[in-house]
Amino acid sequence: MTDATAQEAPAAEAAAETAPKKRVSKKNRRQNALQDGLGAAGKTTSKAFAAGWDDWIKRQDKSARKKKNGAIDDVGRNAMRASSKVIRKMASAPEDFWDAVDKSWKKSDRKLLWPW
């Protein structure tokens, strides 16, 4: 690899990392912000459910290894711990939605979604 190609490689990687700016007309910016917010909230929610499910599976396996019928005996405790993990992680979903809407909507338009 020559010195010229060695210098071009980091520049090409940096250019690939920056995504092009979204092209949205002025009349559709609010709808686009709403869609982005819903997408972010949905992504947070799905990640929370996945983390809770993984936690439940891990705890069930651990209970089954520790004692005979352990997974059956501890199903309630394991389910409650997993559901509390889901709730903790999912709590930021409304904030993700609101952050996207708050940036682009006018105050009068935000009052339609959040009246107080």
Put simply, the count of helices is: 6
The radius of gyration is: 23 Å
Return the structural class.
mainly alpha
Range of helix content: over 70%
Overall pLDDT confidence: 80
Oligomer: single chain
Description:
The protein is mainly α and 116 residues long. The protein has a domain at 28-107. It is 79% helix and 0% strand. It is elongated. The N and C termini lie far apart (62 Å).
Features:
single chain; mainly alpha
Task: Kindly summarize this structure in a few lines.
The protein is mostly helical and 116 residues long. It has helices spanning 3-17, 29-66, 70-73, 75-90, 93-104, 107-113.
List the helices and strands and how they pair.
Blueprint lengths: L2 H15 L11 H38 L3 H4 L1 H16 L2 H12 L2 H7 L3
Helix pairs in contact: 2-4, 2-5
